[in-house]
């Protein structure tokens, strides 16, 4: 076990939102902003923002880390930028009326295509497809949930196709 792995989660937290240089085994060096550190494996998650490109995320396994050096503190802009990496894209805010309209339109479309669908929950906000998949508001592919990966994948594709038609 190396020094990095011996640190506690509170020690690792001091590295979050900071620009660091990580030296790993075989003299590999990585530089980036610390998003988080996995408390079980001591894996460090780094974000980099190459110019004119989307940001990228890399993982350096805890057992491979030999040294971590803080190069720069993150300012409030950088902290916000890092927070947006792991946060879902901001979803549109829908009024209760809009959500009801979206639910009913999707439900009608599913029924038209002979897919058994009903409503469940206290207020009937959740759509239930054949008793094996649910769709929560705002009724997009990301809100589909099922323990059956095949059904989940196919329904997400159908819902995305439906939304693309709209």
Automatic annotation (TrEMBL):
UniProt keyword annotation of Metal-binding present: no
Subcellular location, principal: cytoplasm
Pfam families for this protein: Gemin6, Gemin6_C
InterPro entries associated with the record: AD, Gemin6, Gemin6_C, Gemin6_Sm-like_dom
UniProt keyword terms in alphabetical order: Cytoplasm, mRNA processing, mRNA splicing, Nucleus, Phosphoprotein
Residues of the AD domain: 69-166
GO terms for cellular component: Gemini of Cajal bodies; SMN complex
Keyword presence, Nucleotidyltransferase: no
Gene Ontology biological process terms from the UniProt entry: spliceosomal complex assembly; spliceosomal snRNP assembly
Location in the cell: Cytoplasm; Nucleus, Gem; Nucleus, Nucleoplasm
Function: The SMN complex catalyzes the assembly of small nuclear ribonucleoproteins (snRNPs), the building blocks of the spliceosome, and thereby plays an important role in the splicing of cellular pre-mRNAs. Most spliceosomal snRNPs contain a common set of Sm proteins SNRPB, SNRPD1, SNRPD2, SNRPD3, SNRPE, SNRPF and SNRPG that assemble in a heptameric protein ring on the Sm site of the small nuclear RNA to form the core snRNP (Sm core).
Subunit structure: Part of the core SMN complex that contains SMN1, GEMIN2/SIP1, DDX20/GEMIN3, GEMIN4, GEMIN5, GEMIN6, GEMIN7, GEMIN8 and STRAP/UNRIP. Part of the SMN-Sm complex that contains SMN1, GEMIN2/SIP1, DDX20/GEMIN3, GEMIN4, GEMIN5, GEMIN6, GEMIN7, GEMIN8, STRAP/UNRIP and the Sm proteins SNRPB, SNRPD1, SNRPD2, SNRPD3, SNRPE, SNRPF and SNRPG. Interacts with GEMIN7; the interaction is direct. Interacts with GEMIN8; the interaction is direct. Interacts with SNRPB, SNRPD2, SNRPD3 and SNRPE; the interaction is direct.
Name recorded for this polypeptide: Gem-associated protein 6
The species this protein was found in: Toxostoma redivivum
